[in-house]
Structure formats: C-alpha cells, structure tokens
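Sat 14:20. Reprocessing the chain from the morning session after the first attempt stalled halfway. Input below, unchanged.
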Amino acid sequence: MTTPATATPLLSAHNLSVSLGGRSILQDVSLQLNAGEIVSLIGPNGAGKTTLLRTLLGLLMPDKGHVTRTPGLRLGYVPQRLNIDPLLPLDVESFLMLWPGASSAHIEGCLEICQAKHLIKRPLQRLSGGEYQRVLLARALLNAPNLLVLDEPAQALDVHGQATLYSLIGALAKSTGCGVFIVSHDLHVVMRETDRVICLHQHICCQGRPDEVGRDPAYAALFGGDAKAFALYHHHHNHHHD
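Finished this time. Tokens:
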C-alpha cells in the first residue's frame, strides 16, 4: 500500500540521539510511521534497533530530539516472547482475559482474525511457536490499535511459519488500515509484506521501497555476502559507511 506524502503520520521521530553507558547508540534518527503502511526496520546486531524501538514506545528518553504521536494513538505491541511460568495453569482464553476490559466476544473475534480461534481453550504451554505468536498478535489487537508494533515476531519460527505469520500481518494491515512497524532479522521473508524498509546502523543508512533495497554495496557491507543474493531486496543511496 502506498501512503500519500501528505498523510498525517501516526508517529514521528525527529533527530533522535541516544547514548547508553557513555556509548552512542543512535545518532540523528528521523522517521515517520503512517496509517495503512507496513514499515520494516532492519539492521545487524548492535545496530540500535531495540534502543530505537524502546525510544519510540516512550520507554527510553533520548538525549536529543523528540517523538511525536498523533493524539489518541492506540498502540498494539507484540514482543519477541513473553516468559510465562510453565507451571501456571493458563489457557489462551484466560491469558487474554488478563487484558483490562477484555470480553469473551472480543477475545474470540481477535483470535478469529489471527486464525487462532481454535486455540482458545489450549494451554499456553502446549502451543507451537507459530500458534503462540498468533495468540500474542490477537492480544495486541485487543487494544484496537492504530499502530501495531512487532519486535522480531518470527524469530523462533521456521521459514514456512515466518511466511505464514507475515502474510497474516499483511492481511491485518489491509483489513484494519492500521500502521505496522516490524523490527526484524528475517530479511527475505519480511520483504514480501513490506511497503517501506528502514536500514539502521546507529543512524538511518537508507530507506525506501523493498525494490529499492539491495543494490548498494553499503547494504552488503552491513549484512555480508553478495547483495544480489537477496532477491527481495533492492535499495540504493549515496551514503557511505566507515
């Protein structure tokens, strides 16, 4: 989906710089996230992706710059994984009922959207990795989000599970009109459902459509290997890394 340049962003970051423990993590990062657009943040380990995500969510205060959110913005957050005591007798419905104000009907509706309604009475401990991620996605939808934020959502899934999950995320964005922001290492699979890619390495190296990602030698320098091997990535920019 192409978002008009005149669209009011759901969330904007303006010249963010963050240091932790005396070490610079982010430098002058600016971006915007729009309704109906799927944006993927990629970068090697240590690039500052988690720090940027925490800053956008308001969990970290930047040393410089600021974050602007549209009034009344509702966020839905899908973490990499929630650690739940394996001895806790909790099924999917009971887990989702912990969300403030959740009703059985609303829970069933969100599970159905995520193709997980059949799991409603399943103990959390008996869910596969893909099933668990769909339940976490349903949990995020309970907030009726304008912006859905996913942190490495397919990290523990095989290639088929990744493709299935990202297809579901793409369908959600189209059906609800919400914005989606994905932090991911799953470069090949995530591109199939992404409108725009942001490449981060302490600063934003480049951003653009997936078909613009991968042509520049700087991309290969970040991720290693031959950039042409990433068939779903094509990007170019005139920025040079040290």
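The radius of gyration is 18 Å.
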